[in-house]
Design goal:
24 strands
Length: 600
């Protein structure tokens, strides 16, 4: 028999009654029933109940005194549980081990947080003792799920003819849209490597090198603040690239992977391929953002023409000054929701920092509310027609400049959908957002800048760059979105040097900048680069959705806190002066203003 176990804690069944078994694991839970003591023994695979009889005093005393989460080894006879004691929730629930021998392999200290149970604990405790947190059933299962998902993704990509390659971790800094993590070079004083924000340039170089179909479960590093769906510091993505492809080919390659993964690891309904395609312009109009949650049936519409020159002077005057009015329907709310529902929505909008949220309430076809009193029948009829309103619906209005009105309308659409319980909880709805603007005007820097990926191919190529207003140029850029969460951005790449020079020129980067910062890429493009494109769905966000977790830290083994600190390993940390000298570095800490003490 093996030194530590003949079986794991999820293997033994009633067919093995009478056999001698040896198990090792953690003391999950203890229950003292007088002359009998029960220990649920847990390992990675599951739980087996072990029975200690007081007739065997020596082993009974050991079991009685051992702390929870201590590691023990037991040996004993497999016996059948009494009928009333069968636990149908456990695979091993109809047997138990009558222990004849026990050894404490490692005694646990007093726990800072228990593993048994579903209690919530402060984040700092959970992250400092993450190795304990990971023993808890929900988190442990999340990490196993993550592993299974990655395994399935690899299989699906390989089955499509993709090859997995590993790209460098130490590379050059590049403007990917976030801050780089810099690594000082000991051998080249004053110079720095950067951890890759994404393997963008390297995967394009792989296509130029002739590998045709690449993928990688790639680590990426960005010095960004934490969010519920974004971990600070590092994350993983399914990075992929293909040669001789159009946008449609990329979609056709990734859709079966996403659909298959979500069907395999969930009982929810999943959008069948091909996924719906929504232009960026339509998404901003209909949903108020570029990552729409299509489980919400509400669509925003523009009703500026209804109020232009109307009797409702507030909106009419705003429209003359360049504002728009967006309508957010509230199905059946007019008939079944009290007026307070509508007034509270206006209060909510103000609390969110907006001027307010107007409304009209329809009940049995009658339009009610302050706005309705200032609109004639023709305007009301036009409004109902444009916004597809029924006789017992409600409708809210967001008025302001395009960006402001879109933002408020998007937030209101989500809140109305949640408050009226319109958002389906039993499906994953995918879509593509396509036709992103190639450029946008940066109000802070007062200049034109790339709105998406600077390496993307503009629609219309060099001719579009030479003849069109840059703000009207669209790119072959796309996002894949699921239930309102952006899983990834992607693009068909700019593979022609002349087009790249021009594209960067419009964003204020001369040829010398392009040649200095992207010399490896640029030189490669001059030696025969095939048309190519790709995408990189986020692994962490995929697992977060499938695990039904609201926070991405619940699906990452050792996450940092919101301040980008690893409380368990105490990183970031100070280093010795000797190390700084080797790297030719001098730290200059910010001056901290002394706290003002209150006067006596």
């Amino acid at each position: 028999m093996h030194e530590y176990r003949s079986h794991n804690c999820s293997e033994i069944r009633s067919g093995q009654v009478g056999e001698i078994a040896r198990l090792s694991g953690w003391v999950h839970r203890k229950r003292d029933h007088g002359g009998l003591l029960f220990i649920d023994l847990r390992d990675h695979y599951g739980i087996t109940q072990c029975v200690f009889d007081s007739d065997f005093k020596e082993i009974f005393d050991i079991a009685e005194n051992v702390r929870a989460e201590s590691v023990i080894r037991v040996e004993g006879e497999v016996i059948k549980r009494d009928t009333v004691a069968v636990n149908s929730d456990l695979p091993t629930g109809d047997i138990e081990i009558l222990v004849k021998k026990v050894d404490v392999l490692n005694e646990a200290a007093e726990l800072p947080m228990p593993v048994f149970g579903d209690q919530e604990y402060p984040e700092d405790i959970r992250l400092k003792y993450r190795f304990l947190d990971l023993r808890r059933e929900r988190i442990h299962n999340n990490i196993v799920l993550r592993s299974d998902i990655i395994t399935s993704i690899r299989r699906r990509m390989i089955d499509q003819g993709f090859k997995e390659f590993q790209t460098p971790i130490l590379t050059a800094s590049s403007p990917e849209g976030a801050r780089d993590f810099l690594v000082p070079s000991r051998m080249h004083p004053g110079k720095f490597y950067a951890l890759p924000q994404a393997p963008q340039q390297f995967k394009q170089l792989l296509m130029i090198a002739g590998f045709d179909k690449y993928f990688q479960i790639a680590p990426c590093f960005r010095d960004e603040d934490a969010r519920a769906d974004r971990s600070p510091g590092e994350f993983y993505q399914l990075d992929m690239e293909m040669s001789y492809v159009t946008q449609d080919d990329v979609f056709a390659a990734i859709e079966p992977v996403m659909h298959g993964i979500f069907e395999e690891f969930s009982d929810k309904k999943v959008t069948p391929a091909p996924f719906p395609r929504i232009t960026f312009k339509d998404s901003m109009l209909k949903y108020g953002n570029d990552k729409p949650d299509l489980r919400n049936p509400i669509e925003i519409c523009d009703v500026s023409e209804v109020f232009d020159g109307s009797g409702f002077s507030i909106f009419a005057s705003a429209i003359k000054n360049g504002a728009v009015v967006r309508a957010i329907a509230a199905p059946e709310a007019g008939g079944r929701m009290p007026r307070s529902f509508f007034d509270k929505m206006n209060d909510w909008a103000r609390a969110e920092g907006f001027a307010g949220l107007g409304y009209i309430r329809f009940k049995d076809g009658e339009a009610m509310g302050p706005i309705a009193k200032n609109l004639n029948e023709k305007c009301i009829s036009k409004l109902k027609n444009i916004a597809s309103l029924g006789d017992n619906d409600g409708v809210f209005f967001a008025c302001g400049k395009v960006d402001e009105a879109s933002k408020l309308a998007g937030f209101a659409r989500t809140k109305v959908g949640e408050d009226l319980q319109l958002i389906s909880k039993d499906e994953f709805k995918f879509c593509w957002i396509v036709d992103f603007p190639m450029y946008e005007y940066d109000e802070v820097e007062k200049k034109l800048d790339f709105s998406h990926n600077p390496f993307s191919m503009p629609q219309g190529g060099l001719e579009a760059l030479n003849t069109m207003d840059p703000k009207d140029i669209l790119g072959y850029q796309y996002d894949i979105v699921c239930n309102g969460i952006e899983l990834s951005s992607g693009a068909i790449r700019n593979h022609v040097p002349e087009i790249m020079y021009k594209a960067f020129e419009l964003a204020g980067h001369g040829p010398e900048v392009v040649e200095e910062r992207f010399s490896g890429m640029l030189n490669a493009l001059k030696y025969g680069a095939p048309p190519h494109g790709g995408i990189a769905p986020g692994i962490d966000r995929i697992v977060m959705l499938l695990a039904n977790e609201p926070n991405i830290r619940e699906v990452i083994l050792f996450p940092m806190n919101q301040k980008a600190e690893d409380l368990m390993m105490k990183a970031p940390s100070e280093v010795e002066t000797k190390q700084l000298r080797e790297l030719h570095l001098l730290t200059v800490l910010p001056k901290i203003k002394p706290e003002l003490k209150p006067k006596d």
